[in-house]
Task: inverse folding
């Protein structure tokens, strides 16, 4: 929710291609004003599994956005007519089958964080170049918007990643602080990593 706008995902529509619904109040009653459908629709994309809104922008995550669950994140911006238009489809720089990229998203102004809990590279820390294999260790991606265009800024990994950490299971963003959860960390006890 942002101001008087609510965004809700609906993953089960249209053979699970999914969409997101935008609501605003009208005379004291909340009404749907827009349905956001990522293009092109993909069966079992699960669009709307994660959504985030900030200012005039809405992010819709589709972890099944390709046939192999690599994942895609779609960006929408509200125009002068009040309607939202899709602008970009974002993919991870090291995209691989089954990453679940876009399973979680967090947007604040011109910064976007995207979780990919099944990403399986063996790198660690901030800005690491992915190498090797560490199955389902997970990752988070930070994007920045410059002159209206989104670009990947940095890749985040756990400081001591292990297989099945699921780092990126959830993400949050507040000011300069980024939080990334890893539910499988320390043999299933879980952990939250903070980045600034």
Result:
């Amino acid at each position: 929710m942002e101001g008087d706008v609510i965004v809700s995902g609906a993953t089960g529509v249209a053979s699970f291609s999914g969409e997101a619904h935008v609501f605003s109040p009208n005379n004291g009653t909340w009404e749907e004003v827009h349905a956001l459908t990522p293009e092109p629709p993909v069966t079992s994309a699960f669009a709307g599994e994660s959504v985030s809104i900030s200012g005039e922008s809405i992010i819709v995550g589709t972890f099944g956005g390709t046939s192999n669950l690599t994942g895609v994140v779609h960006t929408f911006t509200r125009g002068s007519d009040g309607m939202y238009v899709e602008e970009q489809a974002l993919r991870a720089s090291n995209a691989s089958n089954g990453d679940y990229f876009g399973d979680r998203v967090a947007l604040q102004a011109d910064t976007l964080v995207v979780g990919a809990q099944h990403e399986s590279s063996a790198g660690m820390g901030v800005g690491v170049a992915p190498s090797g294999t560490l199955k389902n260790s997970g990752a988070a991606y930070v994007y920045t918007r410059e002159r209206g265009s989104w670009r990947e800024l940095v890749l985040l990994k756990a400081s001591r990643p292990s297989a099945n950490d699921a780092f990126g299971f959830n993400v949050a963003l507040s000011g300069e602080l980024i939080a990334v959860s890893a539910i499988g960390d320390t043999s299933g006890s879980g952990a939250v990593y903070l980045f600034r």
Observations:
- The chain has two helices and 14 strands.
- The helical segments are 13-16, 185-188.
